[in-house]
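U., I forgot to send this yesterday:
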Amino acid sequence: MKRYSNINVYDAAKKRIEYIFDEFETIAVSFSGGKDSGVVLNMAVDEARKSGKRFTAIFIDLEAFYKVTIEYVEKMISNNRDVLDPLWICLPMESPNALSYFSPTWTWWEEGKEDIWVREMPKNEWVINLSNHKFEFYKPGMSFEKFTPLLNEWLAKTGSAAILLGLRAEESLNRYRAINDNKSTYKGLQWSTQINKAYSFSPIYDWTVEDIWTYNGKFRKEYNKLYDLFYQAGASIHKMRVDEPFGNEAKAGLNLFRVIEPNTWAKVANRVSGANFGNIYSGNKIMSTKYTLPEGHSWESFTKFLLETLPEDLANHYKRKFIKFKKVIDASPNIDTEDDVLTWRRMALCIIKNDYTCKGLSFSVTKDMSERGKYLVEKYRGL
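Result:
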């Protein structure tokens, strides 16, 4: 494990979680079934047993999970009921599907499609679904992105609440920014973010993936055995993802779904439009970002051509996303410094990748900016 001048990342995270348990009465861990949130959940369990406090474990079930992941989640909840109260949420929510232009979203646990669900509705007593939920803010088919902050507010309805996340700055630039951007925090702690009455905390923000596995091995903690199957299938420890598999970031791992759980995969392919296409072409140039401009086109003309080829509803969706920018340029400068400036090239790639939520419209980072980022990571590593 990495060390600061006087403490390693495990002891630092342990102190952060102890601090949160001392400061808040309402505490929740956002648990996805993945390795990072699994570490946070295990550390929260240890602190809860030491402090005599309880906390809530939130698991939002996306329906199209590996069977082994669900078995792991059930085990983690069952083995730790002495200190945690589970919220296993199986409510229909809309999610992006980067694999189909004709069905750019899909809704997990959608009513009326029970016959093609990837899994049956879980029967555990702690499962929350349409028949028993008490979330007054919930609307059928709402997006996961809208649901989550409202759930955090719901948890804080009797006072402030702390939501623990398994976010690590090393994973991506977006997650690094989530830690280091200017924002409202809890008492100046940069690894926290204020969400109205609730605060999210990232106690393992400075861990590497090697730290995650060192912790699991050294302390013999439970973890999702899906990672063992990923490893046996030849996946790098830096490329293993457990989350919903149809978004832009996770779709490259669809071929592993077919190899590891073929029976589940057959249901996934029948459930989500374009899933088998993603399985065949994941890792192929057709699903990468390394595109060259077709001969005879400028990026502007190519973008407009792509929009004309899309289904009308989807084309209008992208136009609504693009129109909020005040200016569009054809050549990308070394550093994009204005939030209202967009390049035609970035728009074209957004359409080609079917980036429905347009995450790709965030601006690129130069080598100088990347070096600056590394410097800031080291500077603030002791937060």
